[in-house]
Amino acid sequence: MSVSDIITTILLIAGAAFFLVGTVGLLRFPDVYTRLHALTKADNVGLGLMVAGLALQAESWAVVGKLLLIWCLVLLAGASVAHLVTVVARQRGIKLWKR
Amino acid sequence: MFMEMLYIGMALFLLLTLVAGLWRILRGPTAADRMLAAQLFGTTAVACLLLLAQALEQPPLRDVALVFALLAVVAAVAFVRRAWVADRETEE
Amino acid sequence: MSYIFLYALVGMGLFTLGLYALIIHAHLLRKILAINIMGSGVFLVLVALAARTEGAAPDPVPHAMVITGIVVAVSATALALALMLRVRSETGRAELDEEPLSKFDD
Amino acid sequence: MEALTQLQLAFDAVLGLALLWLAWQTLASPELFRAIVLFIAFGLLMALAWVRLEAPDVALAEAAIGAGLTGALLLTALSRLEPKNKSKIPHSKKPESEVDE
User: Fold this and answer.
1) Which of chain B's ends, N or C, has fewer CB atoms near its CB within 10 Å?
2) What ranges do the domains of chain B cover?
3) Cβ-based interface (< 8 Å): residues of C facing D
4) Residue D50 lies in domain
5) What is the average pLDDT value for chain B, to the nearest integer?
């Protein structure tokens, strides 16, 4: 087991932890806005860490480029969807959660 | 061998979080909650596909993940622009 | 016995579930969803049978059929949805009832 | 090797059960919108099943069509199907025109 394998393992576990946290947030948070907040962490950071971990194992630079492209696409999509959903939710009058 | 097991194990773990997230689709009080859960599913499936591509040594799966990342938005945008806007008009 | 058969069994289960739902639901959108799930079950069985010999490369012919089938299923779904909207605008409802033809006579 | 096979088998079992459960929930859902979202999730999981069956070409078609197109089609159709004066009560599915007849 080489050094890059160990780094990959750490990155993958960290990414999976973010996915877990995102899911827990999705299940436990009280309203749309806070759930959106939890969701984007899983989208951006979790997938980012996984991509970083897998890119270390990639056989060529083309694969690394493709992985980064996928991550950038998901970032872009997540940001757009989060923004759209929030704007429309505000327009529809979904109340912000107050403790 | 350890790395393959790690990849498959991670993919299994992601699948389990995905199944847990189904609960939000089933319960979600508003339509937006359900759609958000579907969005999270898309991202989780992308991560799962990337892991499987590495574990099964099938590079074409990365292209599948790419298509997923591109097209997961379509449903969400269709939801926000069509299904949801119609709902809002009726409330006023 | 391998995991391939697991998927074939799941495909059969999906087909059965879809068939049952197709029969018991009156709403047309539910019927369309049920037909889609039935189709997915059939595709799953086909692809599982294509990969049945372990170790060897899967048979490409069922794959080609399934890809064609997926595309056809989407077109058929779009047509069915359009027809459903038409039924809705003609009769004011998107459900089939006991005497389905009576409303189309006039 | 043994542990790897078992892990893969666990993955397959979870995926298969999730597919069946999702299909059941989709078809038994009392609310149409929920059924459609569950169907989209079902399409996502189907793509993973194709991957496990060594059919990346089918997975590509399913991802392009199942994840994107069908969901958008169904949601658009649902938005046109909803009665214009739909209230927020989930069980007011029947349109008003039915009362007039």
Assistant:
1) C
2) 2-91
3) 3-4, 6-7, 9-10, 13-14, 17-18, 20-21, 25, 27, 29-30, 32-34, 36-37, 40, 43-44, 47-48, 50-51, 57-58, 63, 66-67, 70-71, 74, 77-78, 81, 84-85, 88, 92-94
4) 30-81
5) 81
